[in-house]
Amino acid sequence: MTDETQFRPQARAPRGFADKRAAVLRAERRIVEAVSGVYEAWGFEALDTGAFEYADALGKFLPDADRPNEGVFALQDDDEQWMALRYDLTAPLARFAAENWETLPKPYRRYAFGPVWRNEKPGPGRFRQFIQCDADTVGSARPEADAEIIAMAAAGLEAAGLTRGQAVMKINNRKLLNGLLTTAGVESNGQKLAVLRAVDKLDRLGTDGVRLLLGEGRKDESGAFTKGAGLNAKAAESVLAFLKAGAETRGGTLSALSNVIGGSAEGDEGLEELARIDAALKGLGVADDQALFDPSIVRGLEYYTGAVFEADLLIETLDEAGKPMRFGSVGGGGRYDDLVARFTGQPVPATGFSFGVSRLAAALRAAGRAEADAVRGPVVVIAFDQAHMAEYFSVTRELRAAGIAAEVYLGSSGMKAQMKYADRRLAPAAIMLGGDEIAAGTVTIKDLDLGRELSSQIADNAAWKAERPGQQTIPRAGLVAAIRAIVGDKA
């Protein structure tokens, strides 16, 4: 085969699958470790399930015969059963709980983290593979279990690096709107789902747009028509009044909602559950600016059965063009009492929350927090002479034994290129051991961190060369102490 005919694949990543270098990986790892620490402190047990689940365990994401990859990445096993990469971490939990229910402590409190995969159209901020970090309580119907998950999520947001006022947990209960619709004479599930879809567009379309979708429908700017829920004017206005019932305090919202719901049994049950959640949150020290009741929160149209909640990011973020944008939700959850029952036929209450780790890391970068994620490289030992390679490796062994990351330059370039390499790695220091240093029992250290700092302050190149910032020659025995002084607590 000649060079002209040899096939050369184009180097490209599949759409929706991001390559991540050290800074992004470090940022995501930091979030996972911080949030996992909160989960463990609250008494939740770690669980890891496999990447694949049998497709019929994925509920509404079950591929059908004609579309085996609809929404998920599925393949047929050698026994002809369809299995798919997990869509989230909750469906595997439901399967695990059903499979092991007799031996599990009840309620079963678990947390999990890892990648999930979705066969959906990728776009800005939407990936086909991303990291989630979940915590769930299976086996408790108490609203206090919802409150604990909400409070723990608020603590997780702060552990991940957000301070008070930079994010808020928004809470609702699906039973409230269900009760309102029942009172308004809406009985069919299809019409209820249409109402929920309309409510879910409040942020994007505003009150007038939602009003149209609650009625006959709405035509967008392109001329495309979306059929509405078909509510009469009175029912539509009652839904809009419900959405406007949010107040600055949880108590104020509860009071406003009690005047809107209309006394339906299901609505009253939802109000009682929110009242118990509020009381528990107060006991857990969660203030109104950390968690509030918001009637517009819907989530998972066919998934959740009671309380629902979202973590809404409030800090200003910028898009790639530097323009302000609203990042929105970085996590969510709620009560899902029917998921385990799919396997067992027996009702098993459950509630949980999921951090979108990749999304939260991206939000922090968009908020200008990327500098905190810069990854410091290792100390670099300059390779002057092949004859002294053993000595260079001895230096790195000594530094690593002291807990300091270090490497010997193993390329084939000269001194100038090696220093450029160390700088690109964000190495804190470069170590130089020429023949003279080895003979004299000394070592030369260049403090690259200080050099970077001073280079931004010195405009004149001659002054830069004259000052030779941060370079010292010391006895070989003092190497570790000198490097530790440069690296500090970042080793």
TrEMBL record:
Its EC number is 6.1.1.21. SUPFAM superfamilies: Class II aaRS ABD-related (SSF52954), Class II aaRS and biotin synthetases (SSF55681). The keyword Isomerase does not apply. InterPro entries: aa-tRNA-synth_II, aa-tRNA-synth_II/BPL/LPL, Anticodon-bd, Anticodon-bd_dom_sf, His-tRNA-ligase, HisRS-like_core, HisRS/HisZ, HisRS_anticodon. Keywords: Aminoacyl-tRNA synthetase, ATP-binding, Cytoplasm, Ligase, Nucleotide-binding, Protein biosynthesis. It is an enzyme of class 6 (ligase). Residues 1-378 form the Aminoacyl-transfer RNA synthetases class-II family profile domain. It catalyses: tRNA(His) + L-histidine + ATP = L-histidyl-tRNA(His) + AMP + diphosphate + H(+). One of its GO terms (molecular function) is histidine-tRNA ligase activity. It is found in: Cytoplasm. Homodimer. HAMAP family: His_tRNA_synth. PANTHER family: HISTIDINE--TRNA LIGASE (PTHR11476:SF7), HISTIDYL-TRNA SYNTHETASE (PTHR11476). Belongs to the class-II aminoacyl-tRNA synthetase family. This is Histidine--tRNA ligase. The gene is hisS.
